[in-house]
Request: fold
Amino acid sequence: MSGFKKFLMQGNVIDLAVAVVIGAAFNAIVNSFVTHLLTPLISAFGGLPDFSTLKFTVGRSNFMYGEFINAVISFLMIAAVVYFLVVRPYTHFKDRAATREEITHRSCPECLSEIPNAATRCAHCCAEVAPV
Reply:
């Protein structure tokens, strides 16, 4: 039982649970935006007030392809928001952090082993090198 408790109390599990809850709330917001604002705006050009009423019938079965269009628009909006508000800023931050890392070692010109920048002699092959 203590192993299970340890597993649940790990930071990754808690972070994942919070992300799922926030994602569900965000999904509700985006679906509302698509259904009540974006779909009527897009359909204003086509003359339909809402895509959700679009359907075709085969026999006695109704195929509601308008709901599918709403779902595709919702997915594309969620993907765009995640990309522009999460992925791009994180990538930018990561790239800036990588450039800040100071290079402290270099390759020996003789044996290609890694040596400190301030070294005047390679520790592996004893070749003389100019300090950086």
Remarks:
- Helices lie at 2-8, 11-46, 65-100.
- The longest helix spans residues 11-46.
